[in-house]
Please model this.
Amino acid sequence: MTTKLLLTFAICRLIVTVGLTVDPSELLLLGVDGQLSVDPFEVETASLDFGLLTRAEPMAVLHPGSADDIARLVRAAYISSHGFTVSARGHGHSINGQSQTSNGVVIEMSGGSRGSRLGLRKFDKPRVSVKEKHVEVWGGELWIDVLRSTLEHGLAPKSWTDYLYLSVGGTLSNGGISGQAFNHGPQISNVYELDVVTGKGEILTCSEEKNSELFHAVLGGLGQFGIITRARIALEPAPQRVRWIRVLYSNFSTFTRDQEHLISLHGNPISRKFDYVEGFVIVDEGLINNWRSSFFSPRNPVKISSIAGNGGVLYCLEITKNYDESTADTIDQEVEALMKGLNFIPSSVFTTDLPYIDFLDRVHKAELKLRAKGLWEVPHPWLNLFVPKSRMADLDRGVFKGILGNNKTTLHAWQHGTVNVYLSHYDISLVKCPHALVIIRPYTWDQRSSAMTPDEDVFYLVALLRSALDNGEETQSLEYLTNQNHKILRFCDDAGIKVKQYLPHYTTQEEWMDHFGDKWDQFYRRKMEFDPRHILATGQRIFNPSLTSTGTVSPW
Ligand code: FAD
Model:
C-alpha cells in the first residue's frame, strides 16, 4: 500500500515536472509483470554507477518482468504529449553516467539492488542450442551467468571482456573486448540475432537478414536506438584448462612487434596460435618491485627491478593457450614453438595453469579483495582509447614515459606502502593501473555497426583503469587523475594522434559529431528512425530529449 502511494506520488511528480499526460493510474495499471518502484534505496542505486563521478536521480525504477513491460513503458513515454526519458541499466558499470537519467525511468535490466536483495529474477535461464552452437539470453543477463549455463553443455561464448559481471546488453551497446578479440572480434561480432524495444515501443527481432539496419545500429550503439531484451550469441566447444603466461620487455618496439606478430597468426590452425593476447605497461617502480610476488610462483628467481630499463617502464605480454584432455600431451610443445619467435627478456617467463572458468573470471577475485579493503566503491576516472598502430611509439614516449612515467610522487608513495593492498595482477590494474594494451584487428569489426574505431588496419585499446583514493596523496586524488586524463587527450590532439575513445564520454553534440566523423549522418538518421523523440539512454548526452508538447525534436 505504502509503495503504491509513493509510486502515485512519483508519477504525479513526473506529470508536474515534464507534463506527462499519462494518467497516473494508467501508468500504475500499465499492467507490468514486473514492478515499478520508487524505493529510495533503488532510486539511489540507479542514480550512480561504477565511475562514481556523476549523479542523476530518476523518478522511478522499473524491474521488468518481460520484454513486454519494457515495450509498454517506452510506448507510454513515446506517445505522451510531453514525453519522459527511459534508460536501460545493465550492471551500472559505466563510468560517466551513461545509464543514468534524471526525471525519467531507469529500467534495471540485470536486477539492480532489488533484484540482488530479493532474488527477483523472472526470466528464463539462458537457453543453449547444442546443435546450432548458440545461446539465447535475456538482455540483462550477466556474462558470468551466460558462461555458467553454457559450460553445463560443454560450450562457451568465443569473445569476452576481462570482467564478467557486466550485462550482455551493456557490452553489446559498446563492443565487448578482451584478448580474444584478435581471433574472434569483439562481442558485437559474435551475435546472431537480437530482440530490441525501439524508442517507439515496438519489439522487433533483428539480425543480418531481418531488420538489419536496426541490428547494426544497436551493436555498439550506446543504447541510442533500442533496448536489447534478447540476444542469440555464438558458442564454441569450451576448453577445460588454460596455460597462462606472462613475459616482460624493457623495450617498447620489441614488445609491440611481438604482439603484432602474434595477432598476425590468427588465420593459423588452433595449435599454431595463442587464444588470447594482451599487454600491460607498468610505469611505477613500486609495482615493478611487487610484480613477482603478486602473480607468479616464487620459484622463478628473476629480480624484476633489476631488468626495468628506460626510466623504470616495463611492458608485460600476457598470452594464453587453451587445452583439454585430448591436447594435454602436446600443449608444452605448442607453447614452446610459439614462444620461440618472441624476443622477451629470457629470465622473465612466468607460467600458471588453471581451469578455463577461473581464467575468464579472474578479475572477480580481485574485486572481492578490493571490496574487503573498501577500495572498490571509489571514483574511477577511467580513460579508454583506441590508438592506431602507427602512432603507438609516440604514445609510449608522450604518455607512458612522459605524462604517466614522470609521476615520481606515486612511485614514492607506493614504495612506502601507503596503499596497503596485497597485489594480484588485477588489484594492480584496478588500483594503480598498468595500462592494458589489447591489440584488435579492425576487419573483425563490422563497419556497419555503430562502434567507432581508428582508420587503420591494426589498432590498440589503451585502457587507463585508475581509481581515485582520498588518502591525502595528491597524485592519487580524483582531481589529479582527471587532469592527467585531460593532458593525455590534449597530447594526442596536439600530436595529431587520431585516437577514438572506447566507452566514449563527451558533453557536447559537436564533440560527438567529431567522434563519429563520416558516420555521424548515418548515426543521426538511425536515431531519427528508431528513437525519434530521443528518449533512450540520455545519459550518453548525445541527443537532447524532445520533451516538448508539440512532440517535435528540439535541436541540441
Ligand atoms: P551499463 O553501464 O549499465 O550501461 C551501459 C550503456 O548501455 C548505457 O548507455 C545503457 O543505457 C546501455 N544499456 C544497458 N543495457 C542495455 C540494453 N539491454 N539494451 C540497450 N542498451 C543498454 N569493457 C570491455 O569491453 N572489456 C573489458 O574487459 C571490460 N572490463 C571492465 C571491467 C570493469 C571492472 C568495469 C567496471 C567495466 C569493464 N568494461 C569492459 C566496460 C563495460 O563493457 C561497460 O561498462 C559496459 O557499459 C557494460 O556495463 P553494464 O552492463 O553495467 O552496462
In short: The domain at 127-237 is CATH 3.30.465.10 (Uridine Diphospho-n-acetylenolpyruvylglucosamine Reductase; domain 3).
